[in-house]
Write a structure and sequence with these properties.
Elements: E1 10-13, E2 22-27, E3 34-36, E4 48-50, E5 58-64, E6 78-84, E7 87-102, E8 110-116
Antiparallel strand pairs: 1-6, 2-5, 3-4, 5-8, 6-7, 7-8
Length: 124
């Protein structure tokens, strides 16, 4: 099921209180690995079983950059909540894993902040 994010979407880091202005949100999706079960006597096609764990994915956020309010990229994991009309994605023990900053002449400086989700996120 996909969600439509609108202008009222917000982000909050529960411990540090970091709450930037969001310009875009992308949930990369959950994934479950396939484990190769083929062996030297397997013929034809490889065989697989489903892996035992699910990777909860990442949230990639476009935000306005504020030099006085740096993203918590070097802090301990914390609860991260993205709230949108009709619901929320809550990642427990989540943490920032990447930050890029982009600026062009005559334009606002923007950033792309990647948040690694850990554990089972609520609201999915």
């Amino acid at each position: 099921m996909s969600q439509t994010f609108t202008d009222t979407t917000t982000l909050l880091f529960g411990t540090t209180g970091f709450a930037p202005e969001i310009t875009s949100v992308n949930f990369t999706g959950m994934s479950r690995p396939k484990v190769l079960t083929s062996h030297l006597l397997t013929t034809g096609y490889d065989t697989f079983v489903n892996g035992p764990r699910v990777d909860p994915g990442d949230l990639v956020l476009g935000i306005f950059y504020d030099a006085g309010d740096n993203p918590p990229i070097d802090t301990d994991p914390e609860v991260v909540t993205v709230t949108y009309p009709g619901g929320a994605i809550v990642g427990t023990a989540s943490f920032a894993t990447g930050l890029t900053i982009t600026g062009q002449m005559g334009d606002l400086i923007t950033s792309e902040l990647t948040i690694g989700l850990s554990g089972e996120p609520a609201g999915m």
